[in-house]
Amino acid sequence: MSKQPEALMLADELGRTSARIQQYTNKGGDGLMEAAEAELRRLHFVEEAYERCKKVCAATSEQWRIDSDRLQEINDELVKALEAVRETAWPYLYIEQQNQLDAAIAKATKV
């Protein structure tokens, strides 16, 4: 059994059949077989490109997941650091600084 993709096998068979018909009839065809052969080859290359894109998308998706997980870890660390600052420095901060710190913690925990 051939390892050649089916679309290319069919395109080759159409090409051979068209050539045999032309050889035995001494006439050119109406171009339909040649057009079908060309379309099968084009579809094969489109399918190959689609498969390559799927692989790239899968790899990109996995990297996105890894990056997203890491960003969540960093955000969690930031929240802990902000809360530690709040616990230790709160009495020494001006009201405006306290409000900014509260806003930063609220923003970081919304994620």
What does this structure look like?
- The chain is mainly alpha-helical and 111 residues long.
- It is 85% helix and 0% strand.
- The chain has helices spanning 6-25, 32-89, 95-110.
- Helix 1 packs antiparallel against helix 2 and helix 2 (32-89) packs antiparallel against helix 3 (95-110).
- The longest helix is centred in the middle third of the chain and has 58 residues, at 32-89.
- The radius of gyration is 33 Å and the shape is rod-shaped.
- The relative contact order is 0.07.
- The mean pLDDT is 88.
For this entry, give a set of tags.
111 residues; mainly alpha
CA-CA gap between termini: 55 Å
Q: Could you give a short account of the major beta sheet?
A: none
- Quick one: overall form? rod-shaped
In which range does the helix fraction lie?
A: over 70%
* Mean of residue pLDDT values: 88
Cα Rg: 33 Å
Indicate the topology.
Layout lengths: L5 H20 L6 H58 L5 H16 L1
